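Predict structure. Chain length: 367.
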Amino acid sequence: MQKTSEIAVIGGGLVGMAIAYGLARRGESVVVLDGADDALRAARGNFGLVWVQGKGASCPNYARWSLHSANRWQAFADELEARTGVSVGFERPGGFNIAETAEELAAKVAVMQQLAASEPALTYEVLDHEALAERVPAIGDHVAGAIYSPHDGHVSPLYTLRALFTAFTQTGGTYVPNARVTNITPRAGAFHLDIEGGRTLDAGRVVLAAGLANRDLAPMVGLSAPVRPMRGQILVTERVAPFLSNPTIYVRQTVEGSVMLGDSAEDVGFDDGVTPDVIADIARRAISPFPLLRNVRVVRAWGALRVMTSDGLPIYEASRACPGAFLTTCHSGVTLAAAHCDTIVPWIMGGERPSLLNPFNAQRFAV
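Prediction complete.
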């Protein structure tokens, strides 16, 4: 059966659903075409950080883009809860980037100095061991210190995705599961989509938010998505007494009391499995700064494939060859969710491209 929609968003992960909800709440007719449950989903491997600290050392605009989104997260979370009744567990107490040696701390300070020189709004504190231990009594005695930034926070990725699904359908959006798009054909200012199983859909505009599948879909609308998989493994422990109210890069305690440990960055193709050596290394890196975790039981471990470009930065592109087609891809689906919902959407609806996005086009990979 052939159907029509004003805008088709291909991909129902954190990136696609944030954009789809942003469009639907502005009155657009939107359908989300999502893959099957066994599709390779980056959202399953998200650590839940709304993280700004240290991002953009080689590209200040990425630091600005991350801060722009982080500053909008509280209002984004409040809106989702007010609309759906789902609390996404967002907190922004500031984050610690822990350094176990003096040399490591000096390197982290150098990065923050470089970032602050180009973006004064990025503030931070350098904490020695004594100052860090005052704020985090559970820290190991050998840890040299940390960088603290008030811009960082954390959230439940799964509750965020659940809230986005609920809010999207409440605002009139249509979600179609098991709808892998196999082909996109531009037709007289619109797009004809072939969907696995013999279904089709016509749309006035198309947003590619399909993660790794964007690599195959983008050329169909005159775009390029040079992305590759990067596996990340994560451990979750049993619930323990509160000891860490601030997120860190490798360890964070959830609102339920469990502790998430991560992460890894492995170039292993499309293998999203779990490996004993990486799990052991993740556990070691968590126990070293937080010795109290030594006897805590791990209850789950899994792997997922992140969507990475060669420089680690996002791609946001509008097709010149096929007007009305847009490409969105990034590996920071949680941090950037608020900006995707709030700032990207007016551009897709026909407004000006946000200046913050200027460096994030695919042409940078053509050289």
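Summary: The radius of gyration is 21 Å.
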